[in-house]
Model the fold of this input.
Amino acid sequence: MQAALISPLSSSTFIPITDRVKFIGFNSIPKSTIKNHRQRRQQLQFSVNCRNIDMAAAAPSSVGTAPKWAQKTVTIPAQRRGCHLITSRILKEIGQDLSGFKCGLAHFFLQHTSASLTVNENYDSDVRDDTETFLNKVVPEGRSAPWKHTMEGPDDMPAHIKSSMFGCSLTIPITDGKLNMGTWQGIWLCEHRDAATPRRVVITLNGM
Done:
């Protein structure tokens, strides 16, 4: 196959009028087309305005429904080593503030590294005892334990590990002024030290 040789256009090359681009001026557009275009634009603008009105009508009024916050630090007296149900103590401290929320979230933050918070069984105390037994089995303690951090006692490093296992914070929904937990759920404070100290819990409420 031979390639075609295309020579550049010279200054005298003539391009037929039929091959040129035809520009249409505004005055050459039929009046009926312009009228239809204007009507369509008016219809679209009316539709947008109606939609804006509908959205504004559907939006809830901000008066009286703005989110609100409440925060309180609750101190739990020193507890023996083990898991303790503290729901009633917490509610006694925050009940009045909690009642002002129709819907929201309650956040609980424990300010310590050798205790923990969790939600679990609120009826049978054997569950709390069994949980403590489990923790002591999975996290070794004493002279045979492999821990380097021992300056604060043999129970300190195991307490740090147990704290991270359960965590130091909880989030519970609020519904109609109450913590919306299951029938058999309660808030536990798990104390992992032998010589316990009072524990502080920062409670933050947010909602409407």
Remarks:
- The CA atoms of residues 149 and 157 lie 6 Å apart.
- The mean pLDDT is 83.
- The longest strand covers residues 68-76.
